[in-house]
Amino acid sequence: MTTVDLPTPARALAVAAHPDDVEFGCGGTLAKWAAAGCEIAHLVCTDGSKGSWDPEEDTATLVATRQREQRAASVALGGTGAVVFLGWRDGELEAGLRQRADVCHWIRRLRPDVVLGHDPWKRYRLHPDHRHAGFLAVDGIVAARDPHFFPEQSAPPHRPTQLLLWEADEPDHVEDIGSSLDRKLAALLEHRSQYRTTMDIDDPGSTEQADRFRDKIRRRAADAAAGSGFAYGEQFKLISKL
Ligand SMILES: [Zn+2]
Questions:
Q1: How far is the CA of 128 from the centre of ligand 1 (A)?
Q2: What is the pLDDT of residues 105-137, one digit of tens each?
């Protein structure tokens, strides 16, 4: 790692493919910043309608449930900022001009100092939504900073100062999340509809299974901090030339 711990930004915006991606990718960092007065915002590109292994699942109900869970997770992180859902269909997200205009609009409106997103260049990444949401964060920044992109938008251009990419192919930055790991865990566990599919919790009432999940995330955060001197961390690729 070449850098650690950015100064706490005044505003941060996390751009994710699905509800729960932000909490996995950068929940500890956002919770730490929120505790220090940063306004954190979530921008979720898809509706999360494929987040179930139950073929009988009612997808409209699932979408509403996941929005509620995402709002609760933001509160669990200490968030007071916007939680925005672009509503593109889960699994079918594209990094096209219409989607880029959406992300540009919200960067211009929310005016984040730091944007966080999926690393679109991560090798051997399978899920197309994660790849496309990563490119939308990058391409959205380029559009938001320049007045000739989407000039019909009413909000003025805005240039964030830093971009942090989680699940990074070549991580070079770590944030200390020792003080905020518990809030990351609490926020993750707000995503109850995802217990089976992403957290390996079959029985929502089982404290043993929830503890096993917490231990897994703690181990992952300890691994991410290795060599940094921190007990727990989140790793990123840091891009500062925006
Ligand atoms: Zn996802």
A1: 9
A2: 999 999 999 999 999 999 999 999 999 999 999
